[in-house]
Amino acid sequence: MILIGLLHHRKSPYKIRKAYAFAAVAKAEGTELLYFSPKNVNFETKKINGYIYKNGNWVQISSRFPDVIYNAGSPEVLKRSYNIIKRLKKEIPFTTHSIGNKLIVYNRLFKDGEFSKYLIPSQIMYFQRQIIYYLNLYRKVVIKPVNGHKGHGIIFIEKDKEKYIVRILSEKMTLSYNALLRFLKYNIKDEVCLIQKYIKCKTKSGNSYDFRLHTQKNEKGEWVITAIYPRIGPAGSIVSNISSGGSTIYIEPFLKQEFGENHFNIKSYLEHFSIQLAKKMDKIQLKNYNESIDELGIDVGLDESNKIWIYEINWRPGCPPAFYLELDVVKNMINYAVYLALNNVKKEGS
Predict the structure, then answer these.
(1) pLDDT recorded at residue 195
(2) pTM above threshold 0.85
(3) Considering only CA atoms, which of 164, 102, 167, 176 is closest in space to residue 139?
């Protein structure tokens, strides 16, 4: 029986909500799941002190090394165990690998060229006056932390004659040139940020929105679409992340409402784009690091000409917040892990 390792920074699975879903789906698919943390790995004995789910409870056991590993913990915390994880990767295939932060992803796609036309014009902000150049160029810009997530820290700025309109979430203020520089100095401080051209992506009622394109690899190692759904920001907000007060609905009624007779073409456009971009990111990762990616959450917007713009690409997007898709996400992960384990065995035996 294939043993799938669920690597997490927490010692115990009891407080990890998704651990049960992973264990249940693993059993249903004819495999076993071992939950463990890096410090419980013994390379000398080739044993891991971890947990399996048995008879309704997590049972602590001493286990052999798993055939494949899904790294589910916090990347920041797992960095403390870098040497252990690096050594595990030499012996066992991992399903998931980091693709880097916003700037790294942007630079990879820009250098590759195929998807560069979908990248929003962006620049690292080294000093506040760069924003004035971008505002003179585009009139509306967005500032976002390179390592930010869930829409936190995003600032919208619009030039209006000699004044500057600034928005953070639903807060709005009008500042002079000098006041803007003081505001930026206080709010950004030492954080590395990107300046981007603002892409207008709003519903007919004026709410900001974007699309999450959730893609995964399946039991054949092929990219499939798990979900595509809109994320709609609250009135007056510049971000649509659900964690910042946004909401979502099913894709079909949203597209029919916003695009009318063109809804089918827009849906097909998003579906095709999500698979092609996932394949491209996978190829870039393989070329640069000899690693494969198993899952991506691609955030995109549509401008007033219905052109796609890439906002962000997440390598660990989590489960869609609605639509009862948690088990679909986990099932794809488990099935891909099995594929990876079997494929690795074939390579070793050849």
Answers:
(1) 92
(2) yes
(3) 164
